[in-house]
Each structure stands twice: as structure tokens, then as C-alpha cells.
Predict the structure.
Amino acid sequence: MPISKAHATWNGDVPSGTGQFTAGDSISGGVTYKSRFEGGPGSNPEQLVGAAHATCFSMALANTLATAGFPPASITTEAAVTLRPVDGIPTITKIELVTEGRVAGLDQEDFARYAAEAKAGCPVSRALAGVPEITLEARLADS
């Protein structure tokens, strides 16, 4: 498997400086203190973690469903990443995954079971095992 790479540069001190990042061929953005810690415009690392987690989980769930004989028409996942001080240090304390699938021939209970299985096996979920709380809400879309 290929090695995935990203690049980041920070200029200046944290309160007044600026940062830029790139990942892959099409992802880039800017980061400031305000965008990371005050909800200001721009991007932040926690959004990138959320995007990575939502994408990886969606792919893992699609694979889990297809392997079980229920190939999905679509999987849509949102990730909300909470950053809070822990012992005075900014720490990711919670990630909330909310996923919706369009899957024929499956009931809600089985969909939730497959989603939990996918969460446990998703490489990004596994990499984020140190996050104290990762929740999952899984629902089937009306067909």
C-alpha cells in the first residue's frame, strides 16, 4: 500500500501567525489561531481529522456491507470533533460519527450492527483509539 503524505508550514507565533497545509493532490487550506481555537474562518487540524475519520469509516462500512451481501447505494457520514483542554493542554476528547446509509434489503438493527463492526475495523478509528469517546449514530435512509 502507498504511503500517504501531507505537508504543513507555520509562520510566526501561534496567536498571530498563519499556517498552510496540503494533503494529496487536491486538499489544501489555511490555519490561524482564530480558525482553530475561536471558530473563526479557515480550517483547522480537527476538521482534517474529522474528514479523514468520516471518509475512512464510510469506506469501511461500504466494504462491510458489500462483503455481507448488501452493497450500499450510498453511505454519508459526518464527524464532529471536540477539542477541549485536558490538564491545560488542547486535546481531542470526543468524535461523534453520524452515518446514514441507503441499503436495500437491510433493517435498522442489522445496519447498526454492521456500522459498529466497520467502526471497530476502520484504520482511522483504530489510529484514534486514544480519543476517550468516539460515538456512532447509524441510521438507514428511507428507500
Summary: Residues 6 and 23 are 4 Å apart (CA to CA). Helices lie at 33-37, 45-67, 108-121, 123-127.
